[in-house]
Design a protein that fits this description.
This protein has 69 residues and is of the alpha+beta class. The chain has one domain. It has a three-stranded antiparallel β-sheet. A hairpin with a 2-residue loop joins β2 and β3. α1 packs across α2.
């Protein structure tokens, strides 16, 4: 396995969210995890790939802010 495993606290810091949110998303199966017995860890590469999949493409070529006028 390449790369290091992160804790929920490290993932929370990386994403700028509370640690409790990371735990909730993990239990719901929305964040990729590695289960080690009763512990959950997160591969940095898997979290980064997950974030890329979440990014929505801009439709119509117009930035979102300009449509608010």
């Amino acid at each position: 396995m390449t790369g290091s495993l992160l804790t929920a606290a490290e993932v929370a810091e990386l994403l700028g969210v509370p640690t409790s949110w990371v735990y909730q998303q993990s239990r719901a199966g929305r964040i990729p995890t590695v289960t080690l017995g009763r512990y959950r860890r997160y591969r940095r590469e898997a979290i980064e790939a997950w974030l890329e999949r979440l990014e929505a493409p801009v439709r119509g070529g117009r930035p979102y802010a300009s449509s608010l006028r």
